[in-house]
Write a structure and sequence with these properties.
Oligomer: homodimer
Structural class of chain A: alpha/beta
Order of helices and strands of chain A: EEEHEEEEHEHEHEHEHEHEHEHE
Radius of gyration of chain A: 20 Å
Number of helices of chain A: 9
Shape of chain A: globular
Helix content of chain A: 10-25%
CATH superfamily of the largest domain in chain A: Medium-chain alcohol dehydrogenases, catalytic domain
Largest sheet of chain A: 7 strands, mixed
Largest interface: A-B, 33 and 33 residues
Distance between the termini of chain A: 22 Å
Chain lengths: 343, 343
C-alpha cells in the first residue's frame, strides 16, 4: 500500500540558541512525505510533547543524549496514528507513541531505535495523558521518586514545578506512598490546583512571598525528599531545610536552561554534608525496561480516580516556537502539549 | 589519689571569626587544674589533632555538631595520658584518645559523652598515627570511601587534599580495593609524595597547570568516585569529568570555610543529572559503632607496610592559632598535629 500524496512540515534546528530560543533558531521546512519502504511505517503526528529538556537537546556538548544537529528536525516525543505500514509490527490505524520529532509526518523503520515507537491503547486513557502521566513525564516522576527518592510513609516530600507535567505526578505518587506533600509553583491558580485538585497537602507560591518562609510554614518537620525540576534559588532554599539522610532528586533545572551566564550552583550544597544527605540525577531512559510497570500502576490509579492529570494543549504545529517558550516563562498550566492534527 | 598541683592553659573561643581566624578570636586562659571527683579522670594532653572541620565548629548555626560557644574551650580531638583516675574505667598511665579540647589538661567524667574517651594501644602504631589513619581522618577516609563511594576494582578514584590527613588514607584504601587513584594536591613536593611514597597512580598539582587538564591527562576513563575535601573550582572541574553513576563524596570544602562571601556552589552540578550520578555528604560520627573494624583493618595494613601515614607535627600549645592557619593556607604537609607535651 502506497501512502497518499502528502506534504510534510517540520521545524528544523537552524542555529544553537543563546538564551531563550528565538524565531531565527528555527527553520520551517516543507517537503513531500516519503512513502514507507519495506519494514517502514508512515505515522501522522497528532500530539507533540513539549518539555523543558528540549532546551538542553539544542545545546552542543556531551549530555545524556546526543544534541539535535543543525539542520535536523527538532526532537520531540509525540503520539501519532499509523497511516501506512510495510511492517508486520504495526497496522494502519494503530496509535503509537515515540520520538517522532516536530513535524506532521514521520516515516521510518518500524523498529527505529531512536524513535522507539510503541503502540498505545486509547481505551486506557485519553491520548494526551499518554504524553503526561503515562508518558515520559509520568515515568520520570514515578521512577525518580520511587527509585531515587525512596519515600517512606510520613516523610515530607517537596516538589518544584508542582503544576507541571512531572511535578503533578510526583506529588500524587508521593501521596499514594503516604507522604506529606508540599508543592512549589508560580501563582495562586496553580497552587490552588495542586492542593484542591491533586490533593497535595500544601503549595508554596514562589511568586508571592519567599520559598524560605513557605518551607518553614509548610514543612515543620523539615524536608526528607526534594524532587527538583527548577534549580537556582529554590534549590538553595530547600537545601537549607533538609533533614538527616534527605534525598534530593535532580530531574531538571528549568531556571537555568536559558542562562547566558554560568549556571548558578547550589551555594547551600554543604547541607548535604551536615545532613549526610544525597543529591542524585535521574534520566528516565534508564528505566525503559520497566515503563510497563509504571504505566500499569498509574493507569490503575487514573481509573480509580486517585491520579489526576492536567494538560495544557496548544493548537497548531506552526505555533511550536512560541509554545516552547511558554515552558520557560511559566505560562503553561499543566503538561504542555502541541496538537498537530485532530484525533 | 589527688592530682598534683598543676596549671592548665587553654585556648577559648573569644569571638566568631569573619574569614580566617585571627588572634583576637582567641582568649589564652590559665586556671588551676581541677582534681578529679568520683567517676572522673584527669588527662594530660600530649597531642592535638588540627582539622579543617574546626573552622566550621567556630561558626554559629545548625550543623552536624553544636558550635563551640563563645568563652568555651576550643573543641579538638587529641591524645593524652591519664595522670589521675577516680574511675574504674581508666588507670593512671593509660593512653586515651578523645575530644579533649585545646588545652594542657582535661578533667571530667570517664564516660563523658562529648569527650568520648577510649584507650589506645601505643604498640599498634606511634601515637600521632592514632590521630591520623587510626583516628578521625582515617575513619572518615575509610568509611566515606567504602560506604558512600562503594569502589569497585578498576574504577578511577580522584581525591583532593591528597597529601592531607583524609586524602592520604582515601587514596591508599582505594588502592587496596584495586582502583586507579589520582590525587590532587598543591605543589610538586606533595604530589611526588603521594605518588612515590603512598603509591597513588598520579597526582595533579593544582598550583601548576589546571585541574581540568590534569584530569584529562590522568583520568582517561573518566572519574567514577571523587572524594572531595576542598570544594570550589576543583569540585567543578571534577564534575565535568565524571562517569555514568559516579559517586561524589562530600567530606569537606576547605576552599570555602573562610569565605566572607557566599559559598561557591558547584556550577556543574547538572552533571549529576546527565550522568545519573550521586553527591552525598559524610560525617564520620555516623560510623562510630564500627570504628573498631576500620582501625583493625588499617592497623594491619600499617603493620604490613601497605598503608603509610605522614604527620606534620608542630610543637607547643601556644602556637595553636598559627598552626590552625597552616591548614587553610596549605602550609601543612601531612596530617597536622600540635604536640602539647612530650610523650
Amino acid at each position: 500500500m502506497a501512502a497518499p500524496a502528502l506534504t510534510n512540515q517540520q521545524f528544523r534546528l537552524a542555529a544553537r540558541p543563546v538564551g531563550l530560543p528565538k524565531d531565527s533558531d528555527w527553520e520551517f521546512h516543507s517537503e513531500p512525505v516519503r512513502d514507507p519502504a519495506d519494514g517502514e511505517i508512515l505515522v501522522q503526528v497528532l500530539y507533540l510533547s513539549l518539555d523543558p529538556a528540549m532546551r538542553g537537546w539544542m545545546n552542543e556538548g556531551k549530555s545524556y543524549i546526543a544534541p539535535v544537529g543543525i539542520g535536523e528536525v527538532m526532537r520531540a516525543g509525540g503520539i501519532g496514528r499509523v497511516i501506512a505500514s510495510k511492517s508486520p509490527a504495526f497496522s494502519a490505524g494503530d496509535l503509537v507513541s515515540g520520538s517522532v520529532g516536530v513535524q506532521r509526518y514521520w516515516t521510518g523503520a518500524a523498529n527505529d531505535r531512536s524513535a522507539a515507537l510503541r503502540k498505545i491503547d486509547p481505551a486506557v486513557a485519553p491520548l494526551p495523558a499518554h504524553l503526561n502521566a503515562l508518558g515520559m513525564p509520568g515515568m520520570t516522576a514515578y521512577f525518580g521518586l520511587l527509585e531515587v527518592g525512596m519515600p517512606k510513609p510520613g516523610e515530607t516530600v517537596v516538589v518544584s514545578g508542582a503544576a507541571g507535567a512531572v511535578g503533578q505526578t510526583v506529588g500524587q505518587v508521593a501521596k499514594h506512598k503516604g507522604c506529606r506533600v508540599v508543592g512549589i509553583a508560580g501563582g495562586k491558580e496553580k497552587c490552588d490546583f495542586v492542593v484542591r485538585e491533586l490533593g497535595f497537602d500544601a503549595c508554596i507560591d514562589y511568586k508571592n512571598g519567599t520559598v524560605k518562609e513557605g518551607l518553614k510554614a509548610h514543612c515543620p518537620q523539615g524536608v526528607d525528599i526534594y524532587f527538583d525540576n527548577v534549580g537556582g534559588e529554590i534549590l538553595d532554599a530547600v537545601l537549607a531545610r533538609i533533614n538527616l539522610k534527605a534525598r534530593i532528586i535532580i530531574c531538571g533545572a528549568i531556571s537555568q536552561y536559558n542562562n547566558t551566564t554560568p549556571v548558578k550552583g547550589p551555594a547551600n550544597y554543604l547541607s548535604l554534608l551536615i545532613n549526610r544527605a544525597r543529591m542524585e540525577g535521574i534520566v528516565v531512559f534508564d528505566y525503559a525496561d520497566r515503563y510497563s510497570v509504571g504505566v500499569s500502576e498509574m493507569a490503575r490509579w487514573m481509573k480509580e480516580g486517585s491520579l489526576k492529570t492536567r494538560e495544557d494543549i496548544v493548537q497548531g504545529l506552526e505555533n511550536f516556537p512560541d509554545a516552547l517558550l511558554m515552558l520557560f516563562e511559566g505560562r503553561n498550566f499543566g503538561k504542555l502539549i502541541l496538537q498537530v492534527a485532530p484525533e
